[in-house]
Amino acid sequence: MNLTNSSSPLNVELARQVGVEQMRRLGFERPDLRLLRSGENMTFDARETPFVLRFTPPYVDISEILYELKCIRYLRSAGFPANRIAPLVEQPIHTAAGLLTVWIRIKGRGGTDADAGLLGKILKDLHNIPRPPWLAT
Q1: Angle at the Cα of 70 (from 95 to 120), degrees rounded to 5?
Q2: Rounded CA gap, 17 and 24, in Å?
């Protein structure tokens, strides 16, 4: 399956193969990758590990990914419950399937209407974090 774009398609099987190879390099003998999402990016659950792998298409400028990682690190340093980047390797990783980032899986649960207040608190907390000078407006 190819996910087409005017520049370069993402290929599910190539991404899965590259993801398995990368997980083996990280010490996981038999990684089992399950496709979670395929759209602009492709995301895999690396089952039996605490990780999720995200492939960004090869046409995306690496500076966009580096900026995203910098924002995530800043939010985490400010105590905000943003997703965590796996500390195993320097990221992003250049691969034949595109730029790869490895994230710590967030264990989810079903939401309820009562979660609206919690979401409001989280958004308020986010808006109370000082904006770093390097953050684009």
Answers
A1: 115
A2: 11
Q: Residue 19 burial by CB count (10 A; 0-12/13-18/19+): exposed, middle or buried?
A: buried
Place of tokens 């905000």: 80
Give me the domains of the chain, ranges plus CATH numbers: 2-127 (3.30.200.20)
What is the pTM assigned to this prediction? 0.83
110-to-37, 48, 52 alpha-carbon distances in Å: 18, 22, 19
Backbone angles phi, psi at 40, to 5 degrees: -60, -40
If we measure between CA atoms, which residue out of 23, 20, 19, 22 comes closest to residue 41?
19
Cα of first residue to Cα of last residue in the chain, in angstroms, is 37
* Residue at 121: amino acid letter: K
- What's the number of CA atoms in the CB half-sphere (13 Å) around residue 85? 20
For residues 66-77, average pLDDT:
95
The pLDDT confidence band at residue 71, using thresholds 50, 70 and 90, is very high
